[in-house]
């Protein structure tokens, strides 16, 4: 990155990244190329997209362009995006897309965190009858898109934020990002969602508007970050207690089933949440 780019603020990065051709993960290209278009179901295609936030973003933008021509409803789920573009649209995405560098460990870690966030959000939100789990999962998948775009096109920036954390000059991610680049990566995600004219609901859920599904998406993202940092992270009980407020009828055990942690630590978290919640079970 040249010195000119180093001095850019948030508006310049929005303008720069909004026009970039969105790459996809190499594994997604392989999975899509291996599909038998005549026998693959939309649900199977959605499963591939669920595992690649770049592909999810690319498909959503394509679906929204198609929707604007047909005057349909906003596309707010992965399955909805797949149904809008069809097998041909997904295949074209694999053929036309540039590929992410999966040797970029920062990008790989951030992408894996987004996928884990979506998985946790899908399971948690599935326990509320008044929300769409798929919408919550899609928002969680795209919640890291600002940081992901930086890892893809300006990796020095998110790496500088990590360096702030690792050096002890910052204790929280948002503090590290502000110190390293002058803005938070969630700000960039929200600004890009607006710049790309993505559905308003997606932006509201990523922003964390005070609704049950937005809070579920937010806490799922927090839990994914905590698990990635440390599979036995002591912050996990607070995440589970936090999401229980929006899923009051769901057992602690059901909430914990969604987390990819060791069974012995799952039991430790269960005991911690029971104590932390005043022995409510």
Q: Keyphrases for this structure?
A:
single chain, 281 residues, mainly alpha, Hypothetical protein af1432, 2 domains, 17 helices
Write the layout of secondary structure elements.
Blueprint: H1 3-6, H2 10-18, H3 26-33, H4 42-49, H5 53-70, H6 78-96, H7 105-125, H8 133-142, H9 145-153, H10 156-166, H11 173-181, H12 185-195, H13 200-207, H14 212-229, H15 236-244, H16 252-257, H17 263-276
Helix pairs in contact: 2-12, 3-6, 4-6, 5-6, 7-8, 7-9, 7-14, 8-13, 8-14, 10-11, 12-13, 13-14, 14-15, 15-17
Characterize the structure shown.
- The structure is a single chain.
- The protein folds into two domains: 1-229, Hypothetical protein af1432; 231-281, no CATH class.
- 68% of the residues lie in helices and 0% in strands.
- It contains 17 helices and no strands.
- The termini are far apart.
Q: What's the name of the CATH homologous superfamily of the largest domain?
A: Hypothetical protein af1432
Question: Given the structure, what is the number of helices?
Answer: 17
Number of strands: 0
Alpha-carbon distance between the two ends: 53 Å
Which series of helices and strands comes N to C?
A: HHHHHHHHHHHHHHHHH
Classified by CATH, the class of the largest domain is: Mainly Alpha
């Amino acid at each position: 990155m040249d010195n000119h780019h180093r001095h850019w603020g948030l508006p310049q990065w929005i303008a720069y990244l909004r026009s970039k051709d969105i790459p996809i993960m190499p594994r997604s290209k392989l999975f899509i190329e291996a599909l038998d278009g005549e026998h693959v179901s939309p649900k199977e295609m959605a499963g591939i997209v669920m595992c690649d936030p770049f592909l999810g973003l690319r498909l959503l933008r394509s679906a929204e362009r198609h929707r604007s021509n047909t005057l349909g409803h906003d596309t707010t789920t992965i399955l909805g995006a797949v149904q809008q573009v069809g097998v041909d649209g997904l295949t074209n995405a694999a053929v036309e897309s540039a590929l992410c560098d999966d040797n970029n460990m920062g990008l790989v870690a951030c992408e894996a965190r987004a996928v884990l966030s979506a998985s946790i959000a899908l399971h948690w939100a599935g326990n509320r009858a008044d929300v769409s789990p798929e919408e919550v999962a899609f928002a969680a998948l795209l919640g890291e898109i600002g940081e992901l775009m930086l890892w893809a096109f300006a990796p020095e920036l998110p790496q500088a934020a990590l360096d702030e954390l690792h050096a002890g000059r910052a204790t929280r991610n948002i503090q590290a990002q502000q110190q390293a680049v002058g803005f938070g990566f969630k700000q960039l995600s929200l600004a890009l969602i607006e710049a790309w004219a993505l559905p308003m609901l997606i932006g509201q859920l990523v922003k964390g508007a005070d609704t049950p599904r937005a809070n579920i998406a937010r806490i799922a993202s927090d839990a994914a970050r905590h698990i990635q940092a440390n599979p036995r992270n002591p912050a996990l009980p607070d995440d589970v207690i936090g999401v229980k407020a929006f899923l009051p009828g769901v057992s602690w055990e059901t909430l914990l089933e969604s987390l990819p942690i060791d069974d012995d630590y799952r039991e430790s978290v269960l005991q911690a949440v029971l104590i932390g919640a005043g022995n409510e079970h």
